[in-house]
Description:
The protein is α+β, with helices and mostly antiparallel strands. The protein has helices at residues 27-36, 44-56, and strands at 6-14, 21-26. Strand 1 and strand 2 (21-26) form a beta hairpin.
Amino acid sequence: MMDSKPFEKPVVVELGHVGKYREIRSTQEAAECLMTAWPLNRGPRHRDALDTCLKVL
Length: 57
């Protein structure tokens, strides 16, 4: 089983719609969110964030 790499403090992100929030508590949750729930307007920063999460894991 992969270590989820918990964050010291959760990060709250707004996903696609005003008022639709998600609390991210670990690198694993961040990677899952970036791969499955992130809005379609993805670009270089999205790719860099996902790559960073995957390298950490």
